[in-house]
């Protein structure tokens, strides 16, 4: 496909909870001068696993496989790639506990179980994948979904990454390898995910010039606070901080612990000792957490929670939820406080990203900290989709979408790239400058 038609480029965001692909395809029967941009987006769960027959699984299938073989699967790998140190569980396959394991090593390689083919039954079932390979498996899954939707091949990609990865050669190379070497893209551009989020609200255009943008990302498993400024089309990073182990899953876990204690008092059973019951309880608590973002009270009800048919039911209010997570909410706000350093007036725009940013208490804490100012909002842009939505805007060809609004955008720290944008976007002459 020629580079200057709709559908030639896609945006990819790999999250710890969900991974998404988005872009602009043609709305008519085929590409051409009269084609209208048609936004598409597909998301999958950020899980990868290997089945007993050696088949590699991704998305929901991998998560379902993890229920029966938890040590044969991995999720939340992006924070491991960001940390670049050992953070995985499991033991090596040689340990004779009847199953192989998942393990992450300091050199960012992960082992997944592989069916024995002879010889020592425990040593033969060890197989390793790099985290770039794991990322590539998810990217390949997403690429196939988008190509099936478009009916054509996608050759180019904008891949978002946490700030620490997007400005280092090592981080960019890992994601470029995932997208090019494992998923088959020909050209890849790695972009700071927070710049992409700001683009979703139009801050990459002239309206964002010389404004300091705070992007607060409260995701499912990690949280970030980043400040940067657009000056004459250049995105300049001011400061960034990350908590790799704070997110929506932690808010859910406090509800699980609270209700597990309540179940123990009511029924004399420790639900924590029953894996199946805990799985049902976690699902119910996640649903309750989401409901409390829209209403003041919800009912947590689980039929046949335990093997003896126990039916559990308990009310949960938004006030209960906020009290249970009081320390975590303030820990999240601490990220913002650390990057802002009390200079509230310095921040011109506030962008919130991630599903947990929907939580009313989080919104109130931010509003109070910024003296009543509210985060940006834009019709059609949801917090959990802002990164991939903005990246899709950066990836769409200028030649066919709003050429009058096009301008150069240079990411100052991003001096090394595997992608020459002059081959991709018309009018770009430097590979560090691209049209958006």
Q: Provide the helix percentage.
A: 25-40%
Radius of gyration, CA atoms, in whole angstroms: 23 Å
Distance between the termini: 20 Å
Can you tell me the CATH architecture of the domain at 9-45 and 135-202 and 379-435? 2-Layer Sandwich
Largest sheet: 6 strands, mixed
Number of strands: 19
CATH class of the domain at 9-45 and 135-202 and 379-435 equals Alpha Beta
Give the overall pLDDT as a whole number: 77
CATH topology of the domain at 9-45 and 135-202 and 379-435: Nucleotidyltransferase, domain 5
The chain-level structural class is alpha+beta
Q: How much of the residues is beta strand, in percent? A: 25-35%
- Low-pLDDT runs of 5+ residues are 28-35, 85-126, 398-436
Tally of contiguous helical segments = 12
Shape: globular
What is the CATH H-level superfamily of the domain at 9-45 and 135-202 and 379-435?
Answer: ATPase, nucleotide binding domain
* Cross-sheet strand order for the largest sheet: 17-12-13-14-18-19
Q: What is the topological layout?
A:
Elements: E1 9-14, E2 18-26, E3 37-45, E4 47-50, E5 56-58, H1 60-68, E6 73-75, H2 77-83, E7 103-104, E8 109-113, E9 126-130, H3 131-150, E10 156-161, H4 163-166, H5 169-182, E11 187-192, H6 193-200, E12 211-218, E13 223-231, E14 234-243, H7 248-267, H8 275-291, E15 297-302, E16 312-317, H9 318-324, H10 326-340, E17 349-353, H11 360-369, H12 386-395, E18 408-411, E19 433-435
Parallel strand pairs: 1-10, 10-11, 12-17, 14-18
Antiparallel strand pairs: 1-2, 2-3, 4-5, 4-6, 7-8, 8-9, 12-13, 13-14, 15-16, 18-19
Helix pairs in contact: 2-3, 3-5, 6-12, 7-8, 10-11
């Amino acid at each position: 496909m020629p580079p200057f038609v709709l559908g030639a480029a896609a945006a990819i965001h790999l999250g710890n909870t969900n991974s998404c692909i988005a872009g602009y395809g043609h709305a008519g029967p085929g590409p051409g001068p009269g084609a209208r941009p048609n936004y598409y987006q597909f998301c999958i769960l950020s899980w990868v696993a290997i089945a007993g027959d050696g088949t590699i699984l991704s998305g929901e299938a991998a998560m379902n496989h993890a229920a029966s073989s938890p040590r044969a699967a991995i999720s939340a790998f992006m924070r491991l790639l960001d940390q670049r140190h050992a953070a995985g569980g499991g033991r090596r396959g040689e340990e004779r506990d009847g199953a192989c394991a998942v393990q992450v090593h300091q050199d960012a390689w992960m082992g997944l179980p592989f069916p024995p083919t002879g010889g020592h039954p425990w040593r033969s079932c060890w197989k390793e994948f790099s985290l770039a390979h794991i990322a590539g498996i998810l990217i390949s899954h997403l690429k196939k979904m988008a190509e099936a939707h478009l009916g054509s091949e996608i050759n180019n990609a904008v891949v978002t990454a946490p700030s620490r990865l997007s400005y280092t050669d090592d981080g960019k190379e890992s994601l470029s390898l995932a997208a090019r070497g494992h998923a088959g893209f020909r050209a890849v551009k790695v972009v700071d995910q927070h710049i992409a989020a700001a683009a979703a609200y139009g801050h990459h255009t002239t309206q964002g010039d010389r404004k300091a943008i705070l992007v607060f990302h409260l995701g499912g498993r990690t949280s970030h606070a980043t400040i940067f400024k657009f000056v004459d089309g250049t995105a300049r990073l001011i400061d960034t901080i990350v908590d790799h182990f704070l997110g929506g899953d932690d808010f859910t876990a406090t509800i699980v612990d609270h209700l597990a204690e309540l179940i123990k008092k009511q029924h004399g059973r420790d639900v924590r000792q029953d894996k199946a019951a805990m799985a049902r309880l976690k699902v119910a608590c996640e649903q309750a957490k989401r409901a409390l973002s829209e209403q003041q009270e919800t009912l947590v009800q689980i039929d046949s929670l335990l093997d003896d048919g126990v039916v559990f039911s308990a009310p949960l209010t938004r006030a209960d939820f906020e009290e249970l997570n009081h320390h975590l909410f303030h820990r999240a706000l601490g990220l913002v406080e650390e990057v802002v350093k009390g200079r509230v007036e310095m921040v011109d725009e506030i962008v919130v990203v991630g599903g947990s940013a929907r939580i009313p208490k989080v919104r109130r804490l931010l509003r109070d900290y910024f003296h009543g100012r509210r985060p940006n909002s834009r019709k059609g842009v949801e917090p959990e989709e802002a990164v991939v939505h903005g990246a899709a805007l950066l990836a769409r060809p200028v030649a066919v979408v709003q050429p009058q609004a096009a301008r150069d955008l240079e990411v100052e720290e991003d001096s090394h790239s595997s992608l020459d944008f002059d081959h991709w976007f018309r009018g770009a002459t430097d590979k560090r400058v691209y049209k958006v």
